[in-house]
Amino acid sequence: MPHAVPSGRVGFLLARAGGRAIRNLNRALEPFGLRSRHYTVLSASAEQGGLSQRELGEVLGVDPSAVVSLVDDLERAGLVRRDSHPDDRRTRVVVVTEAGRSTLDTTRELARGVDDELLAGLSEDERRTLERLLLRLAS
Amino acid sequence: MPHAVPSGRVGFLLARAGGRAIRNLNRALEPFGLRSRHYTVLSASAEQGGLSQRELGEVLGVDPSAVVSLVDDLERAGLVRRDSHPDDRRTRVVVVTEAGRSTLDTTRELARGVDDELLAGLSEDERRTLERLLLRLAS
DNA sequence: TATTGTTATACTCTATAACTATA
DNA sequence: TATAGTTATAGAGTATAACAATA
């Protein structure tokens, strides 16, 4: 049975592949008690150092109210801290702890593995092309 | 603020773009009382003519129990029928009605429009490349 | 015994509205 | 007035298990 690809094909293909990526990463992260969205929050906090929760939501395309509960989970697990912002007492800056950094090192490998599996049929060149095109989609 | 793209980058980009595509299509379909998953079921049923519900689920990557309620909705709206299978009395074949075909003609244009908007930044060549690469991702 | 469809259920994800404390 | 964070909530998506009818 061939795959059915409806018109509006690309949106469908993106959604299906994205869903698969998320499910696979969730499965890989299960032993850590984390899910893919925790990983993206942890990763962005580490790589962009000290984002506010609002910034995290913006950058990751996640609703602010969802960021709160994701950071709650990560804080409870000791992987991030909420620090106060020097200039604005409303704002809370999310900082990755040492434990968080260590967890991130491990889970990053898992995320790479999930990507590798998904992209198994593509050459290195094709992977770069795909990534470049995805980065240029309308945001 | 640049976009944060964690390692496991491609999976993240796919999920974000796919989510956007689904949300946009849901919004476009709202006047029809349909959502994107109804559209994919309707589209696959029309283009592959008379699939069983199990086949629909397989082809679209949707859980069988979800197919039931999607087909329920479409049947209630008069867009598909459940016919009996000639050789297997367990199986129910999903057939698009005339009304369904007409709705599909209209909604297909909406789906194309959503794709167009998402792909606005890419040339025709780049769009074809993207689609071709997406079709080759691990299923 | 295995499969198709179905129902029930639970959990995650997404989105919105309302509130507080600050700006 | 507006913004950052928070809480509560509801709807959609996803997944699993159990069951009836049929193979």
Automatic annotation (TrEMBL), chains A, B:
PROSITE patterns: HTH_MARR_1, HTH_MARR_2. SUPFAM superfamilies: Winged helix' DNA-binding domain. One of its GO terms (molecular function) is DNA binding. Keywords: DNA-binding, Transcription, Transcription regulation. GO terms for biological process: response to stress. Transmembrane segments: none annotated. It comes from the Bacteria. The keyword Lipoprotein does not apply. It holds the Pfam family MarR_2. Gene3D superfamilies: Winged helix-like DNA-binding domain superfamily/Winged helix DNA-binding domain (1.10.10.10). The keyword Transcription applies. This is Transcriptional regulator. The lineage of its organism: Bacteria, Bacillati, Actinomycetota, Actinomycetes, Pseudonocardiales.
